[in-house]
Amino acid sequence: MLSIIYEDNELLVINKPAGLVCHPTKGDVYSSLISRVRLHLGASSRPHFINRLDRETSGLVLLAKNPDAAGELCDIWEKRSVRKDYLAIVKGHVREDAGIIDAPLGKDQLSIVAIKNKVREDGAPATTAFAVLRRFTREQRQFSLLAVQPLTGRKHQIRIHLAYRDHPIVGDKIYGGDEELYLAFVQGRLSDSQRRELILANHALHAREVRFRWRGGDFLFQAEPEAWFPEFTLNEVETRGRAPLPVHRSHGC
Question: Catalytic residues, which ones?
Answer without folding.
Answer: 54
